[in-house]
Structure formats: C-alpha cells, structure tokens
User: Fold this.
Amino acid sequence: MPAHLSSLVTAATAQWMTRAFPASGGALSAALCEIQARQAVTVAARLRHPTAMDAEPAGVAGPGGAARLDRVTGAEGLGTEPWRTWVDEVVASWAAGLLSDPALAARAVAALPPGTGEYRRLLSPDPADTRAAALLRHPDLLAPVAALHRGSLLARLGTEAAPAA
Assistant:
C-alpha cells in the first residue's frame, strides 16, 4: 500500500478506536489514549501488511470502512465523516485484541522485524495510560471487536486458536 494510503488507514482506524472507546478525563487523557490506539493499530497494520505486496489489494479495493465495527459495538449513527470509509476492520480487530491482552501484544510486537518502532505505551502502560484508556483497554468492551478476526491474528502469529471450553 502506498505510504500515504497506509498512513490514512492507520490514522482513520486509530480515530475510530478512540471515538468508539473514548478517553476518560481531559486533553492529556485523550492524548494518552490516542497514543495507545495508534501504537496498537500500527502493530496490527504491520502484521497484516508486512510488505508492499501484501498491502496492494487493500490499496486497490479499499480497507472496508467502519460500518460493521459500528454495528458490533452498538455505535451506529456516530457519524458519516469520509474518514470512516478508510477504517480497516481487520486492523481494528487485531488492535482491539492487542489492547485487551498484554501477552498477545507482547507476542505481536516480538513478531515484527527489529527496529520497527517503540511500543512502550502498548506493552507497559503506566498508571496514567491505564486510567486514560480504561475503555480502550477494557477486555469485555473490546471482546466483540477483537473476536471478529482473532483467528487470523493468531494464525499470523503462528498460534492456533484455543478450543472453546
């Protein structure tokens, strides 16, 4: 995917996540929440599209948009802004899984090529990060989104999905 489209998809997907699971508190909390969303989305996007060739179909067909994510979270009718069409559902689902499962996030970052970034707020949030992103990291709230494409994330990481109990 061309870099400018990749940035647009990443920004739109992170924006959707912070609107669907907003920060609690003021401007600093909103910024901390956005940083965590962007880090999770960036890791998910790099896993999903590790090479330009992998990203090319998404660049041609488009990422899909936020409509299904809105339905799953009950956020239908939150907006019709044009950026919402650039949300990548799979990346949002994978990012939700990373935000709600620290061990999965650590495995995902470890699977990236060396030198691809620093993800401290995703992997080791401090108390301020945790407070700011209480909704963004809440496993029960993220579960419907994370479940959409959890199997493909686990497959990408080389792990089979755990059997249902």
Observations:
- Residues 3-155 form one domain.
